Request: fold
Amino acid sequence: MFPQFRRTGVPPVQVDLSGTLKPRQEAFMRIGLIGYGRMGQAVERVAMARGHHIVGVIRRETPYTEREAIAQQADALIDFSRADAVPDNVALALTTKTPLVIGTTGWDAHRPDLERQVRAANGSVLHAPNFSIAVQAFLQHAVNLAAQLLQLEGWDVAIEEIHHRGKADAPSGTARALATRLQHALDAKREPVYPLPAERRLDENQFAVGVLRIGSEFGTHRLLLDGPYDWIEITHRAKSRDGFAYGAVRAVEWLIGRTGFFTFQEVLNDILTHREE
Reply:
């Protein structure tokens, strides 16, 4: 059973599992956007295609009273702004009791403290470095394969990510997530290194994370495996930003009625098993 929306009081959105963007005749959500760059605009486009309504956009220069008014009108907020703005955006969500989905990356250092704040306030926050459903499947299967092969003699691993030259953080949040998951799967026997050392080789217990910034690339991530007789590349490449936006909208649909500090993996589990409550 779906939860009721917090402010609209209308029945919940019935989610189309096909992933296609099409107008729906059912209930809508009122969504507030934090940030209106390329990702914010993609979220607006996808949300409206799924029948939702954008109540307002919070930008860097938006006064606090207006921020608060937008949050109070919204059933939920979606944040694709800046890493240094995330703590204030979480505070706004907790103050106005508005569920918040965070797609901004680069705020890892604040995560433990923000998670404590959210749980203490019985808030509702969901975050991910990448909201592409395919990327989440890529992370899971790439790590599983690497963990198996790296138990064998002679296998090595590296990660590479490519993004547009305007991306503010490096490595990307997705590359960091891939490296962290791999490190955990290997029981911390190997650790990621970025940037690469300029005057010495990698230690045996280290693996490289490579970064490239060029043009308008939406995002490419590769896990590279080198063995005695084989070379394996597992690659995910985004064709547009709409895939990330679609996942963020699915996440906010899932988040309504839940309290806690969630990751996109929990949404993905429901999507892939066709189980949405």
Summary: The radius of gyration is 20 Å. The domain at 30-131+241-272 is CATH 3.40.50.720 (Rossmann fold). The chain has eight helices and eleven strands. Residues 133-149 form the longest helix (17 residues).
